[in-house]
Write a structure and sequence with these properties.
single chain, 335 residues, alpha+beta, Fructose-1,6-Bisphosphatase, Chain A, domain 1, D-Maltodextrin-Binding Protein, domain 2, 2 domains, eight-stranded mixed beta sheet, five-stranded mixed beta sheet, 7 helices, 28% helix, binds 6-O-phosphono-alpha-D-fructofuranose, magnesium, hydrolase, Fructose_bisphosphatase_AS, cytoplasm
Length: 335
Amino acid sequence: MADHNKTLGEFIIENQKDFAYSSGELSRLINSIRLAAKVVNHEVNKAGLVDILGAFGDKNIQGEEQQKLDVFANEAFIKTLTNREIVCGIASEENDGFITISGREKNNQNKYVVLIDPLDGSSNIDVNVSVGTIFSIYRRVTPAGTPVTLEDFLQPGVNQVAAGYIIYGTSTMIVYTTGHGVNGFTLNPAIGTYYLSHPNMCIPEDGHIYSVNEGNYIHFPQGVKDYIKYCQMEEDDRPYTSRYIGSLVSDIHRNILKGGIYFYPKSSKASKGKLRLLYECNPMAFIVEQAGGKASDGFNRIMEIQPKELHERVPFFCGSKNMVEKAEEFMKNAQ
Ligand code: P6P
């Protein structure tokens, strides 16, 4: 029975024994993310009421129209993390380069860097569909006391110390892992407290939901087309149900709870797919693997890919273990 009265703060203190929390820095880091999430949640929930909607006019590194809430969320997380002097560097999906937390010398004694997608799926905001924040935490690899370098951010996903997402949906939840399973906390907006609502989240080994933008079907590699047809066949436990929200956090959160596979393959339009390895794929892969699932690029484990640049994209297959392995089988056979 879930202890629904346990708050996120109490959970972190209780798990202080985990090596990840030992120094208290990670606890403070998760707490600062929790605070920033409340600030962003407040704005996202009233987005339809104030003139914060609509394109900001600017374009981000991806050449995508920046929604005002994108900018707001980006600034909220960067400001919160910077002001608390808990990390030595930040990289955001919305920024071209990484941010060194300079200021007082002691900042560089901090040992964590954070990579964040401040508001993923933001194109859904105008149509009132849920969006999310995704974060990924690593220990720096360059010497303490020196400014961070690109090397501190270009680490394979297996090096993650923690990863999580916030989903701004019918309720606001924080779901995260520090390598000891996955736990979900739901915000009680009346008192601004997150409660442990989904302890030890585990994704079913099998599922009946597939999430892909089938509008790209004609552009997919043959193996992907074959797998989609497999999902749609009248046989055994199929056809599966197709569910695609267009918001990675929402699609994956549902698949963790119900079982399913999300995939954003490469195509003739996007040779590496659309999703970013560092800001979306690695954190979601860590969470789903910790929940008992699998995440690959169709052939190789996502978390073992050595990143070459901050904003690189990879094809992404993520979800119930048996479903991802079946998709990989079709990809391999079509080679
Ligand atoms: P498409 C949102 O922009 C995002 O990064 C993910 O959240 C989402 O799953 C995907 O892109 C949607 O992309 O090309 O299907 O609209």
